[in-house]
Amino acid sequence: MKAEIRVALVGNPNTGKSTLFNALTGLNQKIGNFPGVTVDKKTGFCPLPDGRRAEIIDLPGTYSLYPKSKDESIVFSVLAEKGSDLSPDLVVVILDATNLKRNLLLYTQVADLKIPIIIALNMMDMARKAGIDIDVNLLAKRLGVPVVPISARKEQGIDDLKKLIAYANQIPLQTDSIYVNALAPALIDDITEEIGASSPYFALQLAHQHEHLKFLTTEQSNRIEELEKKHSFHSQKAQAAETIARYNYINDVLYDTVQTPQTAHEESLSNRIDHILTHKVFGFIIFMMVLLFMFQSIFAWSAYPMSLIENSFVWAEGALRDILPPGPVADLLVDGVVAGLSGVLVFIPQIAILFAFISILEDTGYMSRVTFMMDKIMRKVGLNGKSVVPLIGGFACAVPSIMSTRTIENWKDRMITIMVTPLVACSARLPVYTLLIALVVPNKNIWWIFNLQGLALTGMYVLSLVSAVLVAFVMKFVLKARERGYFIMELPVYRMPRWRNVGLSMFERSKTFVLQAGKVIIAVSVILWVLSSYGPGKRFEKIEQKYSQPQFTQSMTADSLKRVISTEKLENSYAGVLGHVIEPVIKPLGFDWKIGIALITSFAAREVFVGTMATIYSVEGDADRIDSVQDKMRKARNPNTGQPAFTLAVAFSLMMFYAFAMQCASTVAVVYRETKNWRWPAAQFAYMTVLAYTMAFLAYHLLK
C-alpha cells in the first residue's frame, strides 16, 4: 500500500529525532542508503487518524543547513530536490524544549525554504522539571506554524502530532524569520530568474552549495558560479551575516515566549555526575568495570536461551534424519544447511545482549562521555576525538563504523580511523570467541564475582581496542598530512534508557545479523558440504575397497568402521585436499587442515567459522549421533597425539588470528567504496594478515 503523504523528520543531534521516528513507525521501518551515497536512510510508515498512511523519512541530525559532513549535506539535498522519490510534502522539525535557542537556528533555515512545517516541541517533561516555562500558543503564533508539545520517550503528544500530519494540506506557510534578499539581493534575483527557485532562501542556498547538489546540471552549476563572480559573492561572510540575523530574530521570539530559571536542574545534575564518570582516573576505571559487567552478562544471561536453541537444532537434525530417506539430499540438508545454520543462530542471544548494552550506553548519554574521555588518548596517537565514535561502533560492526568516518573532516585522521576500525572486536567475532572460550576456559568464578569465561571475553575486547590505538600510533608516522583535526561534541544530559528503543535495537540488529550472516552461511555450508562429500579421482572408491577387506570388517565394530571411513573420506575430499595444501603454512600456529578449511571459508565472513566447524564435524562424524557443534569440537582428537584437537594453546591461537585478520568481504568492499582506491583495502588486508599470523604464532608457542 503506497503512502499518501511523505514526511521528513529534521532536527539537531540529541533532540530525540530517532525516538520520535520509532514512536511513529514502530517495527514498520527499513534501513537503506540515500541514492548515490552510503549514508544510512531510515524510512517507515505511520498510520494516520483518517485511515491514510504517512511515509516517514528520518534525515541525519544536523545543526544547520550548511553541511560539515556528507551526512549533513543530505538534509538540504532531500528538502531542495522537488519531485524526487524522497521530496517531502511536510517537514516535522524536532526542537529540544530545554535548548530552544540553539535548535531554532535550523528551524528558521528550513522554514525559509517555504515547505509546510510542524514543530514537534520535544522533551517538554524535561523542560518542566528544569523549571523552563514555554508559552506554546504564543510561540506558534510568533512563528506562524503549528507547535505540538510532545515527549517522544514517554510517547506523550504523539496522537496530536499524527492529527496535525493528517491535515498537512491545510497548514499555512510560516512567517519569514529574516529578510533573506538583503544578504545578496542582486545574486538572489539572478539565480531565481535564470535557474528557477521556489524561494529567495532556496536561491541563496544554491549559491552556497551548488557544487555538491546532484540535481543541478553541470551547466546550471557553472552558471551559478559565474553569477557569484559577477556579484563578488563571499559564501562565508554571507553565512556569518545570516547567522547573526537569525539569532537576533530568535532572541526576540524567545524573550516573549520562554521563561528560563538561572540554573537548570537537569544540567547541574549531569555536571555533578560528569565529575565522577569523566574523571581522568576514576572515569577509565568505571568504563573498564562497565565493559567487564557487559561481557560477564553476555555469558551468564545467554546460557539458557543458547542451550534451548542448541537442543532445538539437535532435535531438528534427528527429526530430518528420521523423515528423509538416506542419501545425498538428506546429508546436504542435515550436515550442510542445518548444521551450518545452527552454528550461527545459536548465538542470537549473545548478539542481542551485546546490542542491548550498546543501545543502553548510547541512550543514557554515557557513550558520549566515553568519546569525550578517549579524545585525549586519541590526540596522542594522532587521531581525532571523532575517531572514537567509529571505534566504539566497531563493537557492533565495522561496516557502518567505517561509513561514519565521513564526519571526520581531517583526511589523515579519517584514513587512520578507517585503517584501524576493523581491529575492534565486532559482533561477528563474538560467536568465535564464545565458542572457543567455552571449550577451553573453565566456567567458574574467582573472588565470588568474576567468571573466568567473562574475564577472557573482556580481555579479547580490551585487546582489540588497545591494538587499534597502537596501530593508529604507528600509522601517525606513516601517513603524512599538514592539516590539523578538531573535535566538537555536545554532551547530552543523562537520561533513563528508552526500553522500547532498546528492544527495537535488539530486534533490528539481531535480524540484520542473522539475515546477512545467514545468506553467507547457507551458501558456504552448501559449497563446503559438496567439497567435503566428494573427492578427486577414485579416492572414495579406494577407501571403500580398503575398509571392505576382512582385516577391518572382522576387527572393528560397524560404528567404528563407519567413523573411520568418514574421517578418511573427509581427508581425501576436495576440502581435505585444500586444507592439506595450506597446512604447512598454518601448522606453526597449532592449526590442522580442518581449521585451515575454516580459515579459508571465514575470509567471506568471520562468523562462518562456527558453521564450517559444524559442517566438517557433521560430515566426519557418525550420522546416528547428533551433537551440538560445541560437543563435536570438544570430542575432536588430534590423530597423531590422541590429545584434544582444541587445547588452550590452539584455542587462544585461533582467537588471536580471528582478532587481527581481515576476514570480512563486506568491510573490504566498504573501505574501497569510502576511499575510492583499491590500494587502501589491499594494504589493510596485508598488514592485518601479517599481524594475525604473528600474534597467533606467539600465543600458541607461549601457551603450548
Write a structural description:
- By secondary structure, this protein is of the alpha/beta class.
- It folds into four domains: 5-170, P-loop containing nucleotide triphosphate hydrolases (Rossmann fold), CATH 3.40.50.300; 180-259, no CATH class; 282-478, no CATH class; 502-703, no CATH class.
- 61% of the residues lie in helices and 7% in strands.
- It contains 31 helices and eleven strands.
- The strands form three sheets. It has a seven-stranded mixed beta sheet, sandwiched between helices. Strands 7-9 form a two-stranded antiparallel ribbon. A two-stranded antiparallel sheet has the order 10-11.
- A hairpin with a 5-residue loop joins strand 3 and strand 4.
- The longest helix is centred in the middle third of the chain and has 42 residues, at 282-323.
- Residues 33-38 have low confidence and may be disordered.
Largest sheet: 7 strands, mixed
Please, how many domains? 4
Query: Which structural category do the helix and sheet elements fall into?
Result: alpha/beta
Radius of gyration: 30 Å
Helix percentage: 55-70%
The total count of strands amounts to 11
Residue fraction in strands: 5-15%
The number of helices is 31
- End-to-end separation: 62 Å
Choose one word for the global shape: elongated
What's the assembly state of these chains? single chain
Q: Give the mean pLDDT.
A: 81
Strand order of the largest sheet: 2-3-4-1-5-6-8
* Uncertain residue segments: 33-38
